[in-house]
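Field: sequence (string)
Field: structure_tokens (string)

Example rows 1 and 2, in order.
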Amino acid sequence: MAGDSQLRVRNILISQPKPETEKSPYFDLAQKLSIEIDFRPFIHVEGIPIQEFRKDRINILDYSAVIFTSRNAVDHFFRIAEEARATVPDSMKYFCISESTAYYMQKYVVYRKRKIFHGKQTFKDLIEIMKKHSSEKFLLPSSNTLKPTIPDLLEKNGFEYTRANIYRTVCSDLSDLADVNYDVLVFFSPSGIKSLYQNFPDFKQNKTRIAAYGPTTAKAVKEHGLELNIAAPSKEAPSMYSAIEHYVKKVNDL
């Protein structure tokens, strides 16, 4: 396999925005393996207009706590609050899925003066913290692609909550990539696969290798009849860049 020049990897497209700093491991990987790695988001987030939000008759001030599952949720919650002219009280409690999401709130509030709680990394971790505040009335700002396990866990544990759709994930325009070919396409969500086919309905895999992060992305790859060549995480490759490194070293005979 390693000796077949047709299988060698020369360039890779990561279906995410280019990292803002030069510290990304992908830059190190490109230099280490002497390959080209490009970045291009296949999906992007759009805020739902305030007029559309009002149709759901949700009043932010009716709630005593907010659940944040991402930075996008933080951004669009405070956007909607401002556009609705709702002054969020200092007494509002915030429950964030991770420490990084919690610290991101400093963009909008004085962190040390607010009641902010966070889990380690998973929503299940956060649920354990929320159980100590089970009497709160929770608002869950979300997108159209919210993981079903999140409302399932909230309902299973008996929390009083309302889901507010305030932003959505949509497919990006990739028409400028029509004549560009990559040896490897890397996906991190089923939405990325959806965008690929929305932009290129007649896409044929041919010799293009497909990399997918996570079981739901891998499932979407297979449901579209594509061959999954690089999967992460795994015992040998806990991250996508380590999975790519392992694969490229093998086929490029490094």
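Row 2 begins here:
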Amino acid sequence: MHETAHARVPEQKRKVLRHSVRGQILDALRAALVDGELVPGEIYSGPALGERFGVSATPVREAMQQLAVEGAVECLPNRGFRVLSRTPRELAELAEVRALLEVPVMLRLARTVPGASWQALRPAAAATAEAAAAGDLPGYAEADRAFHRAVLRLAGNDQLVQVAEELHRRAQWPLPGAARVRRADLVADAAEHSALLEALIARDLPVVEALVREHFAGSGG
């Protein structure tokens, strides 16, 4: 019994390491999508991407399968994965759905959440500003989602947070042929987070609603 239990330890460690590698590759692929390094319409093979990241094809394929579930790529048997193209209409529809989902929640939170709770979100807003100032598009995308996630968590609804996160992530994928987002646009987008916090602290509902709708429509952030 002792030898069997001991023999299982390396296998358990291998599973942990494999899961860790897959997670790291998934994060890298998501960043590459946001940054436009993975081009809509292009086909990428697991072995080629594995060589690029210095890993085997297996964790790449597993990560790509997750991206397929998220709607970012489609699986092509014996060929690899094609990055899906999106249209301006799809982006507009995402903004509309996000507004329908999040605006009522934020207005409710603006009426009920104390100012101290909003003050606690200043570091999250500052993180978006730092990433924007550095021109770090993938870093900004992550910080942007983290800020919105922190706001929505105050509603105490985990399902809401999960659905909003998925919509948010989809909204961050660039359109085919789109120019890289300018640093100035990122900085302006990040500034809206601070402005939103001030409006929430002041319980200025008209300003909260206007800022959230403009935020979604203007940048997908």
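free_text_note (row 2): Residues 1-17 have pLDDT under 50 and may be disordered.
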